[in-house]
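Final report, Chapter 2: Outcomes

The project's central promise was a pipeline that accepts a single protein chain and returns its three-dimensional structure in a standardized token representation, suitable for archiving and comparison. That pipeline is now operational. To close this chapter, we reproduce one record exactly as it appears in the project archive, with the input sequence first and the structure output second.
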Amino acid sequence: MSSRRIDLHLISDATGETLNSLARACLSQYEGIAAVQHRWPLIRSRFQLDRVLDGIEHEPGPVLYTLTDRSLRAELESFCQRLGLPAVSVLDPTLDMLTAYVGTASAGKPGRQYVLDADYFRRIDAMHYVLAHDDGQGEEGILEADVILVGVSRSSKTPTSFYLANRGIKAANIPLIPGVPPPAVLDRAERPIIGLTIAVEALIEIRRHRLSMIGAPRTHVAESAYIDPEEVKRELVAAKRLCAARGWPVIDVTRRSIEETATTVIQLMETWERRRAEGARPTGPSP
């Protein structure tokens, strides 16, 4: 089935990440639409806006924007109106609601969410931590983690850890290897330990792709226990049993995006913290 092509212009006076995320979330709800996204970040002057207007005129389409400068907003809205194109300031409804509730107008400064504050440096520190403690590295430093992820090879531990780091969370991840006991440092950890698991078929496909990417010979791939269905099944069962025996909650990542897995990790961390504050054993059921 052929797709309908549209041009979508995303105009921001900051990095444009807010618009990119919003556009991605909204466009995913439409089938048969091929959206060409034109990203225009860091638009803060009339000269820069003129370049954007030329682009919109050349490839007309809906406009989503986050501009705080009133004169630039007025010029963009007037231009789109003349071309008969919809233009939406995506932050306005939320800012209006907050202003009405708190009784204070917003600062109206572009890129203010990216200032070098404590939260920014916490995210950078968390990213450095993940790099140093990925795949079982830096064993002693694992005790400094905010959360520890365990699971068999290729069960999304690393990408989930990096996503969490972008939220300022220090996530260590440790592989569970068949026949090898988990590191003794886990017995001393005073932070939540969470297992990640995945369906056998999905894991085999991911591992097969991984072997192809690193150039493993075809015969080696075909014979590898790494992707043998029975071996993979035994590996996953052993990992689940270990987590159950240790009281570690387990997340099945088979049909979850990295974002969804990370969100569930954060929820389990919050549950762990509540239970510890209440004096209960800080473990929880598998979600």
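Archive annotation: Residues 258-277 form the longest helix (20 residues).
This record, like all others produced under the grant, will remain available to the consortium after the project formally closes.
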